[in-house]
Amino acid sequence: MTHIKIRNQVAIPLSSGNCVGTFISFSGLSSNHEHIAIRFGSAELDNPLVRIHSECLTGDVFTSQRCDCGPQLNEAIARLNEEGGLLIYLRQEGRGIGLYAKLDAYRLQDGGLDTFEANTHLNFPEDSRDFSHAAQMLHALNVRRCRLMTNNPDKVIALKSCGIEVDYAIPTGVFVTEHNRHYLQAKVAKKNHLIDL
């Protein structure tokens, strides 16, 4: 595993959750993306609450109803602010295919393909995200075990394979809309996400 270290830390007041998060940048990441960690509260580092969240400009910033990313991020910030913990924010838009390709995939989804089929139709993997970056960041923060907020079993597997013990996975809320039901059903059926629809 690439040796990374903390580059800088700065406290930023957030209107989401009416709280302060300490934004942490890193040097030595094995990726050209500028991934960040955000520490909330005292963040007990022996076994912190952790949320790994992949960037979603449409959902996180513009509150798109096509996915559940924005509501999951808001839920995580509120819970982490209440309990203390770490948000690992990975800059891997559109399951790792980038923003423009994600918009192309949305057009294909409008024609009936699901989120995974659309990516493969564009000659991308179904999901090309790399959660080992999250493990690298947790190692740099001296976190060796955590409680992970996720519905995605791939995140648990990725952390464990990189030497981070996951004591248990805590499911996120279920945020179904008329626009994202097909998307959520595909995550359950094809990737075994733990979403009670």
From TrEMBL:
Residues 22-168 form the GTP cyclohydrolase II domain. The active site is at residues 127, 129. Its cofactor is Zn(2+). Its EC number is 3.5.4.25. It catalyses: GTP + 4 H2O = 2,5-diamino-6-hydroxy-4-(5-phosphoribosylamino)-pyrimidine + formate + 2 phosphate + 3 H(+). Pathway: Cofactor biosynthesis; riboflavin biosynthesis; 5-amino-6-(D-ribitylamino)uracil from GTP: step 1/4. Zn(2+) binds at residues 56, 67, 69. Keywords: GTP-binding, Hydrolase, Metal-binding, Nucleotide-binding, Riboflavin biosynthesis, Zinc. GTP binds at residues 51-55, 72, 93-95, 115, 150, 155. Coiled coil: none annotated. GO terms for molecular function: GTP cyclohydrolase II activity. Binds 1 zinc ion per subunit. Belongs to the GTP cyclohydrolase II family. Catalyzes the conversion of GTP to 2,5-diamino-6-ribosylamino-4(3H)-pyrimidinone 5'-phosphate (DARP), formate and pyrophosphate. This is GTP cyclohydrolase-2. It comes from Pseudomonas benzenivorans. The gene is ribA.
